[in-house]
Structure formats: structure tokens, C-alpha cells
What we know:
Layout: E1 6-9, H1 11-21, E2 28-32, H2 34-38, H3 42-49, E3 56-58, H4 65-69, E4 76-78, H5 85-91, E5 96-100, H6 103-110, E6 119-123, H7 135-144, E7 155-156, H8 168-184, E8 188-189, H9 193-198, E9 206-209, E10 233-245, E11 250-251, E12 257-258, E13 263-268, E14 285-288, E15 291-295, E16 304-307, E17 319-323, H10 329-336, H11 340-345, E18 353-355
Parallel strand pairs: 1-18, 2-3, 2-9, 3-4, 4-5, 5-6, 6-7, 7-8
Antiparallel strand pairs: 1-10, 10-13, 10-17, 11-12, 13-16, 14-15, 14-17, 15-16
Amino acid sequence: MSRQTRAIIHPKALQANFSRLQPSLPSRAIAVIKADAYGHGAVNVASALRDRCECFAVAICDEVHPLREAGITQPVVVLEGPHDKQDCVVAKSSNCILVVHNQVQLEWLSELPPQHRPVIWLKVDSGMHRLGFSVQEAARVLAENSWLTEQPCVLVTHFACADEPDNPFNAQQIEQFNQIAVNSGLPVCMANSAATLAHPETSGAWCRLGIGMYGATPLANETAKALSLEAAMTLQAEVIGLHRIKKGESVGYSQTWFADRDSVIATVGIGYADGYPRHCPSGTPVIVNGHRAALAGRVSMDMITVDVTDIPEVSLQDKVELWGRQLPVDEVAAWAGTISYELTTRVSTRVPRVLEQISEGA
């Protein structure tokens, strides 16, 4: 790898965050590794957690195959459930738990011989209005399909506003969901990272740990540092060019940035083709040699330009952190007008994920 642009994955941070977020027993934690573990590498994350996590979750069945090929044996919850009949057929042999959220999926599974059915969880729409049976429909489904409760069925729902702990809609969803949860007597899976922190009473039998496990904040008004969460990814590149420009000269496409003094501009080997957001404006922070610097001009496909005038002795091949241990991904996301989820999941495949080695005795 001659180009030094890479996403360094920190397994100790993943482990620490998982432990920090893990609720008290009897609730158990599911590590959500959909979308290639939010861009961190699903196999990387599952391998880091294999000795402490008893269940993983992905979005679709296709995301299970790489885990099995890598020797990950824990059950995997498929949050969107089956997309066709074949998904239903292979789920049991792949040790998948299918979350069923519509009648068609239910019919596919009911047609299978009982001995070939995978474990099935039932999705309840408590107000998100994205996937799931309504509370009334779910009660009917359970009454009409006794075979669902003859296997380890769990009721699943999802909060729309868990990142806003004081939003009254959270209480409305809990009340809606509890109607069927109490009446059915089935175990439940409600809480994501945010709810696990802000509403621990919703932890249920299982909780789903997603963004918080990766070291970004799951709560709208809290920082990851305040929540004792550690960055699990450091996106890093290097200085590949240095230019001294005069006051009044411009940098980059469309001349959106002009120097207000004589300046030193570092060109860094990362761009929107690598997943760095094209819409990051001038002023977006990066870290060069431990110092904050600011984006100067538009993000290009393969490069960015950074004003390093106030940083001493910047040289070619110096390392630049785009986000990670020194610069929170949430801060960069705010500059880009988006959320940390989008930044990490959009790091492109041409950026190698490099697993940080844990030293002996560490």
C-alpha cells in the first residue's frame, strides 16, 4: 500500500465501548455490524468482540456470509428479515435469526417444515412507521400462528427519537409497545445505544448496540467524550504536496477560498472518492502533526487542501487525521451537515481498513 490513506480500526476501543454500553443482566447486548460494521469492517468488529458478545445483528442475509467464512459462529439477527424464500431456506443452517415484519415473510416461513425453520423474532411498529406489524396486527399474528411462540420468539421495536431523551414520543412508543409486550409475555428487544444510556428501563431481554459501540455519540446533546466512548476508527492520510501562496490568491475548484495573508497550503491524499464528504466547507478541521488545521477550498475527488500556515515544520508524508482519536467524527459530521453514521459508512473500499495491533500484555 504505497498510498498512506487508511482507516485504522481500534479493537480495544470497540471492546471498551461495548463494555461501557452493555446493560445489566438479565438484558443482553447485540453488537450491530450491518453496513460492514458502519464502515469499520464486519469481520474486524466481530473478531474483536467474539469472546464477549453472544449475538450479532446485520440488515440483510447477504451480510452473514463473510462472517461465517471468517469463522464467526454466534447467532446473527437479520433486522430486515428475509427478502425472498431462499433467505428463509438457508437461514437455519446459517444460524440466523430472522426478524419478520410483514405478512409475506410470515407466509414464506410458515410454508417451511417446522424442523427447517430458523428462529423468528416479530417486529412491532410502535410509532416509527418504517417496518413492522402494528400493535393490533401483531396480536392477531401471534394468535393465528401459535408456532411462533413455540420457538424462542422475541418482540422487536425501534425508537424514532431515542437520541433525544426528553422527547415525549419516546414515552408514547414505550406505552404502545408495552400493550403487546405485557399481554404476550414474550421477551422484548427495544433499546439501541441511545435508549440503553438514556432509558435503561427499555433494555429488555436484548438491546442493540450500534453507533455508540463505534465511539460516536448516540445522544443529540452529549459528546462521545462525556459518555466515555472511544473512537473505533481513525481516518488517516498524508501530506502529498506543499505550496506557498501570496495574500489574495485562491485555492481549489471555483476559487471558493482566498488567502487573507501569505499562506502555506498542504495537499492531502484523500478526497470524496475515498468517502471524505465533498460538502465539507472551508474551515472544517483536520489534525496535522497534533495541531488543528482547516480545510481551504473545495474537496476534490482524490485530494483536499489545508491551510497549515500556523503549524511549524510541516513536511511531505506527514500524517493527517481526518477524524478519530484526536478529532471526533461527530464534529466533522456537524461541519458536513450530516451525522457520524454517514461518514463512517461511506469510507470507500479503496481505503484499506487496517486493524490496530494489540501489544502483548496490553
